[in-house]
Every structure is written in structure tokens, then in C-alpha cells.
Amino acid sequence: MATGEQRFFCRAPYVAVQSKIGAGDAFTGALTLALSRGAALDQALRWGVAAASATVGTEGTALFERGAVEALLPQCEVQAV
Fold first, then answer.
1. CA distances for 34 relative to 12, 31, 42, 48, 57, angstroms
2. With a threshold of 0.90, does the pTM exceed it?
């Protein structure tokens, strides 16, 4: 993720992929929600990656559950690049 002043990379945790459906929407929603609650850009990126990762671990069109996102969040490592 990049702005005019900052660039970040977030390593996603390993998740057994069940379906890719909704992962982008989950990422965008979690990122936007975190930003709207005052999170810094790097932390909002972590939430987005954790939500997308949790979503790919669900079957079909199911989306993540909050507990799954919170469990994956510590595994989402952000680096300034």
C-alpha cells in the first residue's frame, strides 16, 4: 500500500484456501472500517489483510467471522518499504 509519503507491505498469514470469493471485499471493508475508527494506515492494512485471509479460509461465498480475523491479526506483519 502506498501514499505520496509512505509505502507499506503486509505479509499475509498462511491459510488453507477454500474460496477466493469475497476476499477483496473483505480487505476493503476492514481497511476502511479501521481507518474510519482512527487507525494508522499500517494498522488498517493489517486489519484488511487479516480479513481477506480469514475470508479465503471459508467455503463458497461465506465471509469471515470476527474471531478468525482477530486470531490472524498478530500474524500479519507490516514493513515500511
1. 17, 5, 10, 8, 21
2. yes
